[in-house]
Amino acid sequence: MAPSLWILSLVVLFMVTGTESAAPRRPVDVPFGRNYAPTWAFDHIKYFNGGSEIQLHLDKYTGTGFQSKGSYLFGHFSMQIKLVPGDSAGTVTAFYLSSQNAEHDEIDFEFLGNRTGQPYILQTNIYTGGKGDREQRIYLWFDPTKGFHSYSVLWNLYQIVFFVDDIPIRIFKNCKDMGVRFPFNQPMKIYSSLWNADDWATRGGLEKTDWSKAPFVASYKSFHIDGCEASVQARLCATQGKRWWDQREFQDLDAYQYRRLQWVRQKYTIYNYCSDRARYPTMSPECRRDRDI
């Protein structure tokens, strides 16, 4: 395409959507230091390719992690991760958003390690107003230790959607009309970490971390953030309604995305708090709406 036509097409896209930026079509290779900083055990983070790729290392002394420099109220956040290979039992690799208050909001990806040959478990959870206990667990349809895969969160006033390689694996709709709190007024930072959780992570803590296999290494790249940056005291996004992730087409999944979500639920879901009557004799209100999806 000629440069002039390419520029014209971008102008038309902006005029049609009314957004400040177009939705990303592929992971963006952003250097780690542009948006993130280490949080602890700095010597357990290794940098490659000019800082566009990092590794987190876990040994018997400590794990490590990092966090975003800014806080964000709504947006689209993604990262490519290659998980700990081999015997990863007892380890947890996490990618999540969390606010700073006691009654905090949180949106979690947690990858629970396992013995060699056993599949990783991806656990997601959502806290609103300090209340969590909304775990869902799936097996992945690929080996997440063999290469990088994209893990993303779309968060706006209408829904929170978890994506794996652009396939929705979970949706949490705004159900405030049913008395369910929804994250809307607490900016969150983005965090990631690699740590030892062998008291619960693998088979409820029955499988312990084999430190002879240390160091355990998780790799990250494509540190994409497209959100409304705000102070932790902010209650409103200054560009609310103007960003691509705020537009009508992102207020719900489309028909194809719903079909992919059902595929994940039917073939790969191994736990859903909505159907756990032993822990929750009374179904949460948002689960009743979720059954209609």
UniProtKB/TrEMBL annotation:
Its EC number is 2.4.1.207. GO terms for cellular component: apoplast. One of its GO terms (molecular function) is hydrolase activity, hydrolyzing O-glycosyl compounds. GO terms for biological process: cell wall biogenesis; cell wall organization; xyloglucan metabolic process. This is Xyloglucan endotransglucosylase/hydrolase. Belongs to the glycosyl hydrolase 16 family. It comes from the Eukaryota. The gene is XET. Its main location: secreted. Coiled coil: none annotated. PANTHER family: XYLOGLUCAN ENDOTRANSGLUCOSYLASE/HYDROLASE PROTEIN 8-RELATED (PTHR31062). Residues 19-220 form the GH16 domain.
